[in-house]
Here is the input.
Amino acid sequence: MRILQICQSYPPMISGAALAAARLAEGLAAEGHDVLVIAASDRREGYSTQNGRLRIERLPSRPNPARVNQRFLLWPQRAINRLVHAFNPDIIHLHEPLLLGICGLRAARSLNIPVVLTLHQLPWFVAKYTPSFWGSPIRFDWLLWQYGRWFLSQCAAVIAQAKPVATIIRQHAWRTAHIIPNGADLQHSGRRGARGGGGAGGRRGGRGPPTGNPEQAKRMGLAGREISLQFSHEALIERHAQLYQVICPKPRPYVAHYGRSGSLQNENAAETAGTAVFRAMREE
Here is the structure.
């Protein structure tokens, strides 16, 4: 499957959304999917990197005055359209519902492909950066939720990273969200003794159930091995891949362009010389 992710920040820029997008993109590429990430460049000019099946296109960006060491894309619709049509994805995964989200929606409509949105922040987070009037912040919460209802209605699926967030989305945006935690590494998140006694995360000794963070487990109604299933990196990738397959279970046909060649052997070639164009099914 060919998966396109669109996000504002991506490592080396650091934020929660950036790390989540990177973890997902790298995991999907490692599983054999072709992944393209479009993000803001961490410097003024844009550049591209390729690592196996993962390609990252960082577009020219500008400094974000509201966040330290962060840059953002203002309205890169033309650049996004060019990259999307060249990559020809099966699905577009958005990591923000604002400017880049609109660009992603428009690109998806042009190809008639589904869109998935992961909500990393709620409107209250955006409201923190709004101007104040007579010392009191101007509240845009109501307006943002109105916009959010419309935007979420345009998406084939919405992902929340915790049950409380999904509950808020259902209450305010009237949309049921898929709960997919962010694939935390339990060995660095308070998990001790996962394989019995011994140091370094319990790497030595007999096998035993992972303990995880007790308070976190209590809040989510989980315990023992259920925490491992909820928070493991493998579960993050598997659950996203399953969701993609439900939304677009069959690969779409696409047009492959081949340059001049004197020995074209494809029976479906439209021309015997020059540029040959034929229909093919994308491999997953």
Observations:
- DSSP finds nine helices and 14 strands in the chain.
- Residues 254-284 form one domain.
- Confidence is low (pLDDT under 50) at residues 185-212, 224-230, 254-284.
- The radius of gyration is 22 Å.
